[in-house]
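name: query_chain
kind: protein
chains: 1
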Amino acid sequence: MTYGEKNEKDIRITSELAIPLSELEFRFSRSSGPGGQRVNRRETRVELLFDVQHSPSLNEAQRTRLLNRLANHIDSEGILRIVATTYRSQLRNREEALERFVQIIRRGLHVPRRRLSTRPSPQSVQQRLEQKRRRGQIKALRKRIPLDTSE
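structure:
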C-alpha cells in the first residue's frame, strides 16, 4: 500500500477514521548512515509529526485512547513523532514513515475483545489429572533406591 501519492488527500486508518495529509507535518534533514558521496548533501531523514492532542479528525474517545496507549511515542505536548532513516531516498523514507504511522495509530485504537470466562470440560480436567499422575510416577522412579545393609 503506497501512501506517498500526490492525489491522495486522506490516510485511511480504519473504516471509520481517515486523517487528512494536511494534519501531518513532515520535516527533512540529513540522515546518518549509508549514502556514499551524497550523504552530506541530501536530506533523506524524514520526521513525521502528528498532533494527537489537537487533531480535529479524532473524537474524544479515540484521542484519549491514543494518548493512553501510545504514551511512549507521544511527547508532553501531545505530538506523535515518527522518524524514518532506513532508505537513501527521501520518498521511500516518507512512505515508510506513513506506513509506520498507520500501524501505530491502528495498534493504539485497537480495542481488544473481552474474554468470556469458561470452565474446563470434565474430560479435560480428567485428562490433566491423569497426566499429572503419570508425570508423578515418572519422577518417583527417579528416586534412589535405599541400600539395605541389614541383611
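note: The helical segments are 60-69, 90-109, 122-141.
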